[in-house]
Structure formats: structure tokens, C-alpha cells
Write a structure and sequence with these properties.
α4 packs parallel to α6 and α5 packs antiparallel against α6. This protein is of the alpha+beta class and 451 residues long. The chain has ten helices and eleven strands.
Length: 451
């Protein structure tokens, strides 16, 4: 008998036709179609007093752009949501073991969520399907390219760390209708975001913190806040901006080795100052127009620009002192020649003048010894005389006559070389101050940027 039953069971199992099922059978059983609005028009609960619990996760898959000037942040977000639809369920045994079905989004109700900080509509192609299980569980995933406002603190630019929020809430449903609960904690979403990260560009993704709560706005509404922390990679700004400014500062310091008697030092300092001005224009294009605190990089440029300006003014002062000392030396030479000429004239007036005028010519200053022979040669041979040299001689004689009429310079006069010594001391003192102030300032900036 047992053998007969086994044979009958084998024949029935292998000879009888096997039941074939499709996903449409499940949809027909649940009365779900594009024309039917029964499952898509209202919240999926059988008792309206019971809220729908929406579990949500947000992951960051790319940091597309960060605009400090416009205070906007553009990430690529992967949104994962799941909730329970109490009106859809079936027995998988009746449908050949089908336990889940993928259907278009418009067939079922979806939560009306939005992002507080979003400033532009999502441009990415939405996922057209969602997943529904036989227990009534609905899963929906989507990729969003969002542009959100973000209040950025650029005080430590380019060594700054920024934090931007993505606040998700419902548009219509309050707490008693829709509850928003994060599926994962901060550490899990951070770890998964790092695995999904495709591109970061200038910014390095640090962490993604998750907090949830409610806010009061004519009723209580649930919200989930995802805080994205990211750190700027400063290498590009260091190479293109910080180091050139530092190099110009070193050039300005090295200009103290140039002699003050030459005019090249002043032109060199002006050129370096203009180069810093060009870099300041580049900085103006990077930093936002308004900020709570002055960026350290702006302080860095302003202080170095001010120190170079002081250095330029100090060079002008030293050059002026050098020229003043040169004028004093020229005046002393003229006065000596005038005194010698007056002494010779008085001697001749008393009757002691001889036919040999070597005493008068020899006792004169360097100027008279050089100019008088040339003047005599020009008087003997006017055709061979240099007109420029004759004009110079006339100017010298005019100054001598004016000094004689005025009775010579009045009051005490400083000796030649005083202003030169004062200029050199000023140079040494200012260079010491310059080097000390710049060193302390750079150390302070390094500490601030590192903290």
C-alpha cells in the first residue's frame, strides 16, 4: 500500500500542470492600477487616529560644489525611506511565493517631505519605482542633487571646516499624522556615506550627524536634521596665494641690502607693493562680501601690505636724509670757496697782492680749482668752450654772489655726514622692528590657523 501511495504522489506531482503566477496577479488582487486612486489619494491607515511612521536615512554620495561667495552648498544625496501601508497585503503562497512587487510611484501614497534649506529644484532624474512587500512594507529610494543655503564661517580660510544642515520635514502632516524617525545613527550614516562617496573635489567629507525633533509652527511638526561636516583642502590656496605673498614679503626684506644712494631701491619697493595689490584683488573674488568675523587671510594680507607701505615710506625718508646731507656738503664747499675768494680780495686791497695769483687760485676749494682754469681757457678760446660747462660756472658764481650779498648763512648749521648717520640708524632700527613684527605676526597666524 505504501508503494502505491508513493507512485500516485509521484504521478500527481510530475504529471499535473504547475501553477504560473505574475506580478500583475498581485496588483489585480489588491486593486492597484494607474486609474485607481484608492491607494494613492489618502494616508495608508485604517484608523485615521493612528500616525504613519516614516523611517528615513540620508547618505551623502558626492560633494559637488561649495560657493562661499553665495553661501550655498550642493551635495548629491541618496534618500532612503520606508513606511507601512496598512491597505496592501497578500499571502505569498497563493501567488507562487511572490513576496515583493516593484510598482510605479504614482500607484501608492508617498510622504510629502521637503528640505528647508533647498534653494533650487532638484535636477536629477527621479527613481520611477518603489518596492512593496507582502506585509505592506513600502521602500522608496531616490538620488537628489540639491542646492541648499549654508551659513559659512570663513574666518580660518583656507584652513576652515564648514558644517551645513539638511532639515527634512513634512509639508502638510503634523506629528499626530506623520512621524519622522531616522533609521540609522550618526556613525552608521557616516560610515556608509564614506563608502558611497564618489567625488569630493576641494572638500574632504568628515562626518554626518543625525538629530531629530519637533518644531512649533501653528502646530507641532516632526523634523530630522542631517549635519554635514567637511574640511577644505588648502593646498591650492597655499600655493596660489599664501606663498606668493610670503615671497613678496621676503623680497621686501631683502631690499634693505640695496644701497640707499641708488634710486633702484625705491622703484623695487613700489613694484612689490603693486604685486601685493593684485593679489588682494584675487582675494576679493574668493571671500564673501559679508562675514561675522574678519577672515585671517584678509588680516594676513592687510598687515603685510601695511608693513610694506611703512617700508616704502621709510625708504623715502632715508633717501630724503641722504639728499639733505649731500646739499649740506655742497653748501660747505661753496662757503669755503667764498671765504678763500674774500680773503684773496682783501689781501689785494691792502696792497699785498702780487702778480703771482697762485695763492688765490691755490687756496680756493675744489670747485674753484676745477672751474677757474676751464673758465680761463673758455675766455681765451670761445669757440672751444663747452656751453653747458659755462652755464654751470655761471650758476655757481651766481650762488656765490647771493651768499656774499646775504652775508653768508645765518644760524648754527649741522656738519656734513650727520644726516647720513641718522639715515643709517633709522634703517637699522626700522629693519629690526620690521623683522620682529612680521615674525610675531606670522607665528600668531600659524597658531590661529592650527587651533
Amino acid at each position: 500500500m505504501h508503494i502505491v501511495f508513493l507512485l500516485l504522489f509521484f504521478i500527481i506531482e510530475h504529471v499535473s500542470p504547475k501553477k504560473v503566477c505574475c506580478y500583475q496577479d498581485v496588483l489585480d488582487h489588491l486593486n492597484i492600477s494607474r486609474k485607481s486612486e484608492r491607494h494613492s489619494s489618502t494616508r495608508p491607515v485604517k484608523d485615521h487616529t493612528r500616525p504613519t511612521i516614516l523611517y528615513m536615512d540620508v547618505y551623502i554620495s558626492a560633494i559637488l560644489s561649495v560657493n562661499e561667495k553665495a553661501q550655498t552648498f550642493s551635495p548629491l544625496v541618496w534618500l532612503h525611506m520606508t513606511w507601512n501601508d496598512e491597505r496592501v497585503s497578500w499571502d505569498p503562497v497563493q501567488f507562487c511565493g511572490i513576496s515583493q512587487v516593484t510598482i510605479p510611484k504614482e500607484f501608492l501614497w508617498k510622504p510629502d517631505i521637503f528640505i528647508f534649506e533647498m534653494t533650487q529644484r532638484d535636477e536629477a532624474l527621479p527613481n520611477p519605482y518603489l518596492l512593496m512587500t507582502h506585509e505592506g512594507r513600502v521602500y522608496m529610494e531616490d538620488d537628489l542633487k540639491v542646492v541648499i543655503t549654508c551659513k559659512m564661517d570663513v574666518h580660518k580660510f583656507p584652513f576652515d571646516t564648514q558644517s551645513c544642515n539638511i532639515t527634512i520635514t513634512s509639508v502638510v502632516h503634523r506629528v499626530n499624522e506623520l512621524r519622522l524617525i531616522p533609521s540609522s545613527n550618526s556613525s552608521r550614516v557616516t560610515q556608509f556615506s564614506r563608502q558611497l562617496m564618489q567625488t569630493q573635489g576641494e572638500w574632504e567629507f568628515l562626518s554626518l550627524a543625525v538629530t531629530n525633533g519637533t518644531f512649533d509652527m501653528d502646530g507641532y511638526w516632526d523634523k530630522i536634521i542631517y549635519t554635514i561636516s567637511m574640511k577644505r583642502r588648502p593646498l591650492l590656496h597655499v600655493i596660489n596665494f599664501l606663498l606668493p605673498v610670503l615671497f613678496f614679503l621676503c623680497l621686501d626684506l631683502s631690499s634693505f641690502l640695496i644701497s640707499d644712494h641708488r634710486g633702484d631701491k625705491l622703484g623695487f619697493k613700489v613694484t612689490v607693493l603693486l604685486a601685493i595689490s593684485v593679489l588682494l584683488l584675487i582675494l576679493n573674488e574668493i571671500l564673501p562680501s559679508m562675514s561675522n568675523r574678519t577672515p585671517l587671510i584678509a588680516t594676513y594680507c592687510i598687515v603685510i601690505f601695511a608693513m610694506m607701505l611703512l617700508s616704502l615710506l621709510e625708504t623715502v625718508l632715508v633717501t630724503h636724509l641722504m639728499e639733505k646731507d649731500s646739499r649740506i656738503m655742497l653748501e660747505e664747499a661753496e662757503q669755503k670757496w667764498t671765504r678763500d675768494s674774500d680773503s684773496c680780495h682783501n689781501t689785494c686791497k691792502e696792497g699785498n697782492c702780487t702778480h703771482d695769483s697762485s695763492n688765490c687760485n691755490g687756496s680756493g676749494g675744489g670747485t674753484s680749482r676745477e672751474l677757474l682754469p676751464v673758465a680761463e681757457q673758455g675766455a681765451r678760446d670761445p669757440q672751444r668752450a663747452d656751453p653747458h660747462l659755462l652755464l654751470l660756472i655761471l650758476e655757481e658764481l651766481g650762488e656765490v654772489r647771493s651768499l656774499r650779498r646775504a652775508g653768508g648763512p645765518q644760524g648754527p648749521r649741522l656738519k656734513a655726514g650727520y644726516w647720513t648717520r641718522l639715515a643709517r640708524r633709522t634703517n637699522i632700527v626700522f629693519f629690526t622692528f620690521y623683522l620682529t613684527a612680521v615674525s610675531l605676526f606670522l607665528i600668531f597666524l600659524f597658531i590661529e590657523w592650527s587651533s
